[in-house]
Amino acid sequence: MGAGHDHHGAVANAADRHSGRLWAAFALLATLMIVEAVAAFGTGSLALLSDAGHMFTDVLGIGMALAAITATRRATADPQRTFGLYRLEVLAALGNAVLLSGVAVYVLVEAVRRFGEPPEVTVGPMLVVATLGLLANVVAFALLRSGAKESINLRGAYLEVLGDLLGSVGVIGAAALIAVTDWWWADPLVAVAIGVFILPRTWRLGRAAVRILVQAAPEHLQVTAVHDRLAAVPGVVEVHDLHVWTLTSGMEVASAHLTMAPDAEVGAVLAAARTALHEDFHIEHATLQVEPGESAGPCGPTGW
């Protein structure tokens, strides 16, 4: 016998709530990305080019987030996709991490090359465009901040905007320093700082996405604690074949076989087990197989 609790709709609604803000951030950053790219080639600034490249990944990442939200919404009615397409947002987050890492590595390599003979840059346009980029990123940061707590997909876009915001600050600082001191090394130095700032955050995001894709247990949950809590449910004498994984952001899933005492009532055991998973571990979707204590029969341990 089994029991489950479905909250797919809640996760989809969490993403839908922020789709309007995503569209606004997408339009704003796409416009500034074009302006920064043109200005970077016109001024010769590597720092501004790195900021434009980072903003490109922001735009692409938000576009992937929007595509994942749209696909997830459309897939919920397909009976062949029993879990919908919630993993698309995880794939989008992983794609963001890979793209952002590539941009950071390129900037670092180009910066090292420029340290030997830093080219002159046109400071005035560089400063103006960087200031516009900063303002755009502040607005986008505010739009995405709340959604980053609910979705790994939105968190990826949020982290990219945060890195870009700080990158704009660095470009402004480099432009001001060059204007005052003619110290041209400030431009590649800031580019290196932006790259070094980006890489650890993208790797953490990529690691979180990979953990979900390989169905590892959530980092904040101890599987042994889940096992012991289910074993403590009145009427349960053994717990086996316990699996805990994350389907997508905010959707932890569990399955387990519960061996019951001979005098235990199935309904009471299932209700208590579901309540324990919900209240102690915030696991909303659980499939629990109940087995009689005297014989495991065909429901014995699988060895997974």
TrEMBL record:
Domain named Cation efflux protein transmembrane: residues: 22-214
Annotated Cation efflux protein cytoplasmic domain residues: 219-292
Subcellular location: Membrane
Principal place of residence: membrane
Superkingdom to which the source organism belongs: Bacteria
Pfam families according to UniProt: Cation_efflux (PF01545), ZT_dimer (PF16916)
Membrane-crossing segments per the record: 22-49, 55-72, 84-109, 121-144, 156-178, 184-203
Gene3D superfamilies for this protein: Cation efflux protein transmembrane domain
Lipid bilayer topology: Multi-pass membrane protein
Keywords carried by this UniProt record: Ion transport, Membrane, Transmembrane, Transmembrane helix, Transport
Family stated for the protein in its record: Belongs to the cation diffusion facilitator (CDF) transporter (TC 2.A.4) family. SLC30A subfamily.
NCBIfam families membership: CDF
Name of this protein: Cation diffusion facilitator family transporter
